[in-house]
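Q: Joint fold for the lines below.
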Amino acid sequence: MKIASWNVNGVRARLDHVSGWLETNQPDVLALQETKVMDEMFPFDAFKPLGYQVSIYGQKSYNGVALLTKKIPTEITKGVEGFSDDQTRVIAGVCGGVLVINVYVPNGQSVGSEKFDYKMSWLKHFYAYLQTLLKVHQKIVILGDFNIAPADVDVHDPELWKNKVLCSDNERRWLNQILDLGFIDSFRLFEQEEGLYSWWDYRAAAYRRKMGMRIDLILISDALKKECIKSYIDEVPRGQDRPSDHTPVLIELS
DNA sequence: ATGGTCGATAGTCGA
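A: Joint structure:
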């Protein structure tokens, strides 16, 4: 089973990119973030002819997540249980016996801002939600735009970003707390080249200058470790015309 | 280079 995640920064603006990528890569599951569209305006018709089911949790202009799947998922849930939130950031469902949790973690703007406080609160409630899910599910994949670079190796210039948003100790502490529940950052199960990232800011020609970060992650529960045979980043879409600022990340399960 | 560029949307906000 091939499972992928991609922050598309507007699914309507990226229709050709996503359709083409699905045709080429044929994932069983593609988790999208920042779809930026209300449910009734989601471009269902673009994906159904390609053989994909669409499960969505959208809103106008901001946020929005979706699961594109070859088979209809079961047990679809939206949002973080126990956390009242008008921002649409989580959609989950069971695909091929695996609970797939698609997340768009808040960006946080800057350390100490109101949006950063919201990010911290969101992470706290998401952590509590995971604890309850772990009582029911063993095989879990959490994937999406985490807006957290796990370690300095995931940052193009760690000194510049030291204790800045996406890299601060408090954010990394929450990520590590989640990992301590029994999850693995799948990317680090395998030997990787240096300087592999999943996001490059549109500004300051960051992609051309290789100024990126790995903030799009696929966490797998311990029960899936033996089944995970591959975890990688597909940098191709980021180099295309009018790209998203993020590029897809993938895993393969045996 | 302490700025820049996008998407959704209709003046800005958020990333």
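Q: Anything notable?
A: Residues 114-134 of chain A form the longest helix (21 residues). The longest strand of chain A covers residues 98-104.
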